[in-house]
Write a structure and sequence with these properties.
Layout lengths: L2 E3 L2 H9 L6 E3 L25 H7 L3 E4 L5 H7 L4 E4 L5 H14 L3 H17 L6 E8 L2 E3 L3 H8 L3 E2 L11 H7 L3 E4 L11 H4 L8 H4 L3 E3 L2 H4 L6 H11 L2
Helix pairs in contact: 4-5, 4-6
């Protein structure tokens, strides 16, 4: 079985399942584990895809992720088997891991990963604190999808329910008044300056800003729907007093 993983989250899941030897290619964004960077890559994730390289790698199956890859899925389906997982909630993250595991005869391994994730998430205690996570800064967008469920299970109070990441009414955020703000900005890793939030004029009365409880978390730990979500959640817990 020759697997092409065209999304960082799926690459991480495949490695966690012990399928690294089956992976014949990844993307330029597949940077974890480090060994994944040594695989041939097909260029970008949602843009800059090298379709000639895909043909050269001769995959038996291609793994895609969310709707940003729908166009790729449509094109690749003409020639290859495509497995696309697009979780929009914490429960769907678990289901996607199980789905990938089942497809590659790693059902037991997938179940073990999911079980361990659930146990570790429940062990985290965010102490009922009001939390806002920012996925994009200009304009500000609140992190949705699996983040609300993740924080809720860990005894946190989140700004929105389980819905997609989106822009929001600032007055609603002020009313919610988060005690902690976490910046998991797409594609930025940890290269974000919290001052960008601390100096926003209209945010000065928000408790997290007044107390300077604004922190950066590597976006790969929270924005990729895979096993390392637990690590991202624990990073939050470390900052909660």
């Amino acid at each position: 079985m020759r697997i092409l993983s065209a999304a960082p989250s799926n690459t991480e899941i495949l490695y966690a399942l012990g399928l690294e030897d089956k992976i014949v290619g990844t993307t330029s964004l597949c940077d974890y584990p480090e060994a994944a960077t040594e695989k041939p890559n097909i260029g970008g994730w949602s843009e800059g895809v090298n379709y000639d390289k895909i043909d050269e790698l001769e995959p038996d199956i291609i793994l895609l992720s969310d709707q940003l890859q729908d166009e790729q899925a449509s094109k690749l389906n003409e020639k290859y088997e495509v497995l696309q997982v697009s979780p929009e909630s914490l429960e769907e993250v678990f289901e996607s891991i199980e789905k990938i595991g089942t497809r590659f005869d790693r059902k037991n391994e997938a179940s073990k990963i999911v079980s361990e994730m659930k146990e570790e998430i429940q062990e985290v205690n965010l102490k009922g604190k009001r939390i806002y996570c920012e996925e994009w800064m200009d304009p500000p967008m609140v992190s949705g999808n699996w983040i609300p469920g993740l924080i809720e299970v860990a005894n946190g109070d989140y700004f929105i329910g389980e819905e997609r990441s989106r822009e929001f009414d600032l007055e609603k955020l002020k009313e919610f008044d988060p005690e902690y703000i976490f910046l998991n900005v797409c594609g930025a890793g940890e290269n974000i300056d919290v001052k960008e939030v601390l100096k926003r004029p209209e945010w000065q009365e928000i408790t997290a800003v007044k107390n300077r409880d604004v922190y950066v978390i590597d976006d790969a730990l929270l924005n990729r729907p895979g096993p390392r979500l637990v690590e991202g959640l624990k990073k939050m817990e470390e900052k909660i007093l």
